[in-house]
Input
Amino acid sequence: MLQQTQVKTVIPYWERWMRELPTISKLAQARTDRVLKLWEGLGYYSRARNAQKAAQIIQQEHRGNFPQTIDAIRELPGIGPYTAGAICSIAFDQPTPILDGNVIRVLTRVYGIREDPQAKATNLRLWQIAGDLVKTADRLRVNGERPCSDLNQSLMELGAMVCTPVATKCDVCPVRRTCSARRLGIVDQLPRKPERAASVIRRFRAVVTKRSGRYLVRQRAQNVVNGQLWEFPNEELSASITRAGNMKGNHLCTIKHTITNNRITLDVFFGSENHKAADGKWCTLKQLERLAFSSAHRQIVEKLRELEGSTNS
Output
């Protein structure tokens, strides 16, 4: 959950997840639609599917016990070098490095690394530095201490609380005397920021069709963005189409959202188009609320709830 998501956002999701799926076996056995519903709103839904696949592999190949070697952990779906290093060091106190955004910021400033940290050679250098640090911590181990876990968590915390992107608190930093960026007066220039990809403007039209108190929705394919989530029938529009001139039906709402560098506008209309049953399934509002939607289409459900509420009041 913490991959690409802030801690404050994750906490309520984590608490709800652990109430419903507190063990590896329960996650492995859960219905996929239930897993996605619990994840609804966190985005990057492949993480949820990978978590369940990993749980199933652990059940089948590791007798339900989470593996404790970095090679075995790396073989689980959705786990890359950073997550594997974090698990091995924090959970098992092994000398494995981590490299997330916070750690990159700390290391580039302390060591005065001016190159793009995402460039292959620079990234390898940062992994080497992080590895050397945690191995040194392990060699200095004293009985009862957890130096590998403490070091990696300290690096992340230092980047999150002190060595921040802006308003850096250099005066209270414990490594300020050895920080190259502070000595050279280039703290605000590091880490070097890569050029942002140009924004892509995209427009979609969604149709809400109601029949006998039920709404038509469809499930996305598994191998696409937001795979296996539910949505209202929609289509992407060419740049030449305007809402006023080419979109027929009563306008319900307009939803704007962003996925990576895609700036998306979703215009939603009530429609009376003829849809076959094969296009999806018809659900009551209560049934819709139990399905997992992407955040944009969840907003359509909320709009319909408001509309039905005002109609019934």
